[in-house]
Amino acid sequence: MTETAIPSPDESRAAIADLRLDARLFIDGEFREAADGARFGTVNPATGEQLAEVAKGSAADVDAAVAAARRAADDGRWSRRNPADRKQILVRWADLIEASGREIGLIETLDAGKPITDTVGLDVPETANCIRWHAEAADKLYGQVAPAPEGVVATITREPLGVVGAVIPWNYPAQMAAWKLGPALATGNTVVIKPASTTSLSLLRIAELGREAGIPDGVLNVVTGPGDVVGEAMGRHPGIDGLAFTGSTEVGRHFLTWSAESNLKRVLLELGGKSPQLVFPDVTDFASMAANAAIAIFWNMGENCSAGSRLLVHRSVKDQVLEALKAELEQWPVGDPLDPATRIGAMINRSHMEKVLDHIELGMGEGARVITGGEQILRDTGGFFIPPTILDNVRNDMRVAQEEIFGPVLSVIEFETEEEAVRLANDTVYGLAASLYTRDLNVAHRVARDLRAGVVGVNAYAEGDMTTPFGGYKLSGFGGHDKSVHAHDQYTETKTTWIQLAPRT
Ligand code: TAP
Questions:
Q1: Predicted TM-score of the model (pTM)
Q2: 226 CA → ligand 1 middle, Å
Q3: Residue 135 contacts by C-beta under 8 Å, 6 or more apart in sequence?
């Protein structure tokens, strides 16, 4: 992986002047307007100004994309291709994405308000890395031969589902696309993918690079447009064999219903969270703990499904923990996402910012005390900025401790015993991630085992890497995992072939 230098604000501004944003649908290898010619405007959340006019797809466009994907699935132009060729094309695609790191990162920063240091330095490299990782597995995963009786050869092989639909969120637009596209394409599926309406642009550029890399027409199709139109049409479509969704639990449930009411397509859901961070009394390196805890909740403006939004702290160390967190936050400047020093950019849009501010008010009404942040700042920019906010005196039964806020808001809750900490941590409808801080190996292993969460970090905020699966328990997920070879399983069917051999004559 080559490292891309983060552009200076002047370099970014010069690049913006040269940006070519194609905001049309990408179907059957070409850009085209929506069937009815409709478009919708998107806004740069750091300035409140209009950024682009994006094609507003409809059910007719979903039909066209699924038809193209179906033709490509049926004629085997991708699924029956030598897996080594598929690998080569996808690796080339990853290389092109990496080489366009500054451009794609800039697009995401403008579209989503994310700091340029994160988009260019993390999100785009991770997008390329994800596609490359799955591509490289394409010609390395074997089928099985079953221990069948004499005279029989029984093989167990994996075959692509066919046409995969993906509906993805706005918080990591390119990366979430890669988490679906990498394994779905590496295993030979064709795909129809819908980005979030607020953040369609980077995926369209990535799809264009896919064509340049040699992905055949019809194999990768992008339909932009509103979730309740395009997303629902995909969820109900009889021509889609599997549907991978990342977003809210509420919308995720609909996909299960639509699957049940249509063709029983396989549904994979990666949903919300209210993840706990547990700090035990034997912690001594408060600075390191606070640095990790801050990343867990404030990275990406807290717009992160695995955000560690509940800090469960042993009563005896609470003061030190809060002091360390306040000191850590001095290194988290909020502001212009184009400034490489910025660590907290803008919230995705005005309505989401208002929802987050309402939650802060709600928490105060429930008895919480704001010890830092709590209000919109930088109003004169026209953008939607909320600084890191810490709410003290929270009880786990308050709404701020139970509802996913999806913003830079940390609720601090005290505990006395290990049992109580585990009980509070698990007292949530979600179960995506958790982190715990202790120097005692016994506590670490006991608690990690007791936590009902799909990803547990010990002495770190950790989601693992491409080699480890990502997904949640309870209302945080359903049907499978993103990343690792586990993701390959979910985009494939299992086939048994039972071959009866004639006896030797
Ligand atoms: P969702 O509404 O769930 O949006 C996620 C994706 O689903 C987007 O592509 C969206 O399209 C689409 N969608 C929306 N309504 C749909 C519908 N009725 N039928 C089919 N597809 C639909 O999430 P959001 O509005 O972006 O955020 C709401 C909350 O969801 C957040 O506050 C947060 O709690 C949670 N969320 C979680 C995650 C993760 S990573 N788990 C990510 C984002 C949001 P449009 O963009 O066109 O609406």
A1: 0.97
A2: 10
A3: 86, 87, 89, 90, 91, 93, 94, 182, 186
